[in-house]
Amino acid sequence: MSEKTKKKGKSKGKGLLESRVREEIRALSAYSVPRYETRIRLDGNESPFSLPPEVAEDVLSGLRGIGVNRYPDPEAAELRGLISMINGFPQGGILLGNGSDELIGMLITAFSGGTGRILYPTPTFSMYGISGLALGRRVIEAELDRNFDLDMDRITSLIAKKDPDLIFLASPNNPTGNAYSAGRIEEIIGMSKGVVVVDEAYSDFSGHTFLPLIRKYGNLVILRTLSKVGFAGLRLGILYSGEDLVHEINKVRYPYNINSYTQAAAGVVLRNREFVTENIQLIVRERKRVYGALSGMTGVEAYPSDANFILFKVGDADSVFKALVGRDVLIRNFDRPGRLANCMRVTIGTPSENDFFLNALGDVLSS
Ligand code: PMP
């Protein structure tokens, strides 16, 4: 390539991004998870428990029969049938995603025909905003109240004024950990003319679900995921709603979005789900213990949690984060201006991982 064409090509590349990538996307930061090689990893809200050996064997023999040269079942009918049976929910009201992240994108794509606005309380899961902006929607953020519950005055006036196509309510919320008051959520569903999504990614740890309300409210969508209860690597999100809404959302789903291995493995796991329930119970017991220990530490303010993680505030989150990494423990540093200043989030692990974390934090704070 001549010097001249090289130069031309380079300046064309730069101009390309500026002229062809929308400003909202250039202004975004990619969803990124910093990687640290620590022995104890309590940063991702994953389950610390993998498959019991006998279930792992069943999964492997299920995978052996898969013809990987063929596309997967485009409708994932068998898996959706199983989920329908387990939850007593019509199969036609169930849609699967490559993680609930994909379902969030599908919802934003499908429901944009009114005002083009989406609303969510903050602080919350970042993908509502990232996907909303990436897909060209206007996002409206409504700060949570001082207890991290829904601020009804603020939200109801925004709904009345802005009439969003979509509202996302993560309950229990990430990163705050609390479930919103059920009555407030229902009031929002009842007053919204658009679609209300209750993201129940962590509801297995709160024991509360809005699933039965789908029959009552035609504008309600529930999102769930297998990621937090032991299967983050499978990438399986589940959407529940009325059949008419699912019919529309299904039109913007990419074909074959759930790969053959995930369909097969998730089927085995769900058929053997007793171990999943036991693990959830253990995590909930551990959450109570870790919350008690954190609350008793000087220099720590821990927030009550209904999820598999706890948000807490320290004097200087950056230095605590670094010192914990130095002690082989990774948690999430959420320090940012505003409500989350000096806040950190720890995922509940096995009892020994939790002890290791609590001892390390105790050491760091007293040194
Ligand atoms: N919703 C909430 C509230 C979350 O915290 C997460 C994971 N961080 C997700 C959805 C996405 O989960 P996944 O794509 O793994 O199903």
Question: What's the SSE blueprint?
Answer:
Blueprint: H1 3-20, H2 23-27, E1 40-41, H3 53-64, H4 77-87, E2 94-97, H5 100-110, E3 117-122, H6 127-134, E4 138-143, H7 152-162, E5 166-170, H8 182-191, E6 195-199, E7 220-225, E8 237-240, H9 243-249, H10 260-271, H11 274-295, E9 301-302, E10 309-313, H12 317-326, E11 329-330, E12 332-333, E13 343-347, H13 351-366
Helix pairs in contact: 3-10, 4-10, 5-6, 11-13
Bound molecules: 4'-deoxy-4'-aminopyridoxal-5'-phosphate (PMP).
4'-deoxy-4'-aminopyridoxal-5'-phosphate is lined by residues 45, 99-101, 125, 170, 174, 199, 201, 225, 227, 232, 237.
Can you give a write-up of this model?
The protein has 367 residues and is α/β, with parallel strands linked by helices. It has two domains: 38-65 and 274-367, Aspartate Aminotransferase, domain 1 (Alpha-Beta Complex), CATH 3.90.1150; 73-258, Aspartate Aminotransferase, domain 2 (3-Layer(aba) Sandwich). Helices cover 42% and strands 15% of the residues. It is built from 13 helices and 13 strands. The longest helix has 22 residues, at 274-295. The N and C termini lie far apart (60 Å). Mean pLDDT is 95; it is low at 1-9. The site of 4'-deoxy-4'-aminopyridoxal-5'-phosphate has 13 residues, from helix 5.
Short summary:
The protein is α/β, with parallel strands linked by helices and 367 residues long.
